[in-house]
Solute-binding protein family 3/N-terminal domain-containing protein (Thalassotalea profundi), 246 residues
Amino acid sequence: MSHSILRNFFLANIILVVSNSINLALANDKIQVVTENWYPYNYTNKNGSIVGKSTAVVKKILAQSTLDYSIEAFPWTRAFNLSTTQPNVLIYSILRTPNREKLFHWFCPISTQEPHRIYKLTNRNDITVNTEKDIKNYTISATRGTFLHQYMVGLGFIDEVNLQVTSDDEVATTLFLAGRVDLLADFESSIERSLKERRLDKSMVTQLFIIPAENYPANCMALSKQTSTDVVNKIRKAHQDVMSQG
């Protein structure tokens, strides 16, 4: 074999190895985006696509970063578990609470936070709520592991005593409308959508109380701690660029 043929053979192999290394690096940088169904921020529409106020912002940020990604909706506990145990997992919408602070690389905010409102069924004349403290005189439900779950526990609710813990918000709404819990904490836009989907009139529920806005941390997206610095920096710059555009 001539020297030129041998040289070309080695050169071709070097190019192949480098190309494979680049492809592997790109594959390793792919982001697994996880979320939950939490209207109006992130939810699955009738076509099976994940949409919502926060979803639109997250997709714009990731497009700006040029990173490849996939996006899936899970129950909150599974989404949270993936984002705290695996590299390259981005979770949204997630409220930046003190007990979560050290678990993630944070990118805040991604959208403004709508306050939860406390509702009762209109025909429940036995229920009176004038202040936040009055809420714990009744039963309520919350999705496990969420900010609302933590908030209710902080008010003095006890899991499976006067706080029914559910797998997602839809279950909580179903329990409330069936009269199995006294109160529902939800967004105004979300309860209106739920009633419309069930062909129920808005007059079926009555708003009692609004959880003060100052009680809410920032509404964010967050990246798993095991993710490389390069990926974190790409997303941080993209987040800054997109949010600066208004």
Notes: The longest strand covers residues 89-95.
